[in-house]
Amino acid sequence: MKYIEPVKSVVLFLLVMLSVVLTFMIWTYTPDYKFIEQTEGKEILIGPQKKIEDVIRPYKAIYRFDKEFTGTISNSVMEDIMEGFKGWNVLDLMPVNNNSVNEMIRTNNCMTVFFAGEIPYSAFNSIFQFADKELPETTFNRMIIDWSNYNNKDLQVFFVSGNNEVLMRSHVSLENANQFVRNIIEPAKTYGTFKEVERDGSTSLYIANDKIESAKYTYFVEEKPELFKNVLFTNPNNVLRTDESTTTKYQDGMSRMVIDSKLKSLAYVYPAAESSVRIEPSKLLTDSFEFINEHGGFTDDYRYVSTSTSNNQLDYQLYLHGLPIYSDQAINRITTVWGDNRIFRYKRPYFSFEKDIPSEKEMKELPSGPEIVEKIQKLKNIDLSDIDDIVVGFYLTHDQSTIVTLEPCWFVIRNGVSTKLTPEILGGVKNGLE
To answer: What is the pTM of this model?
Structure first.
């Protein structure tokens, strides 16, 4: 019995010390926030992440052989062209006098690659190897490639801006020049012929001479508005939801998102980020691309198509099988407006193509390019000199279900806005333009 009191004292001392140690550990514990953030980031991916070259891709290429144009809008050829550009050593990038772009394109042994948007040179840093460490803060939307001296492993490349105010020239030292000609140039001899449509005071248009066959598709689409809520709001559990007839609104006191079931779109805004500070095109493209790509927002084939530096806006057009999609029934672009070090506005479709319905597939024959031009020249409300291009694309329709129809049509593009060339506009043109 005489040892009971000493034992109790020792036990009490140990318990007190244990309490002190545990209290110290609790006070000094710091969770691994980096691990938590990475884990959460991986859990919220709406679609696959992509590389910058996946969203910067040409939509047309023409070639000059013996005073004749051939060309293509084939998606697989555009992919091959971008792959062929990889590893190019671009030397001596410098401005040159603004020669006639039309004359340069007409020069034999030249190919011209067309992009929908004005591209900052830095966007090609992952594709080209630029000799210049500091690239000009200008843009281009066409590349004219002269392969006349490819036997000397030398290509001459001109970068042309849309307004033709800036023309840059460079040389490309190409070790695999024979491979480039074999893979990119030689196949072009078998492509269909293209017609040059000359315009007073402007660059020419280039359109396919032959009638165009394309399929009409019907697709099931997948809709993921709730996933976007989890991505765009800092704490989705604190978001208040309000349902109305055709819209659903989400807000948390700092930001707001509206889901429009009629247009199958979402519009997000973070008002506190609004800014009037203009951002350079190169940074604007990088910030916009990284913001969308971080949450896997390029859910389908989206292509960069335009930048407006006046309000820091950048757009990506939805494509299918290499053709742009237009519609007045659903949103067909991702639009970002960058603000004060973060996204200010974000508007986009909330659907993605899941699978086509083969039984609904139907081939359509469209009029040739020259036929369309002839019809346009007779119109009073469309002037050839005012348009950006005449393209084949898909017109998307839906009936408020998860099924959409995509019909091939001719479109006129003016200031980035598409106009579907219907029989009513063209005065009775048939062949599927409905």
So the answer is: 0.86
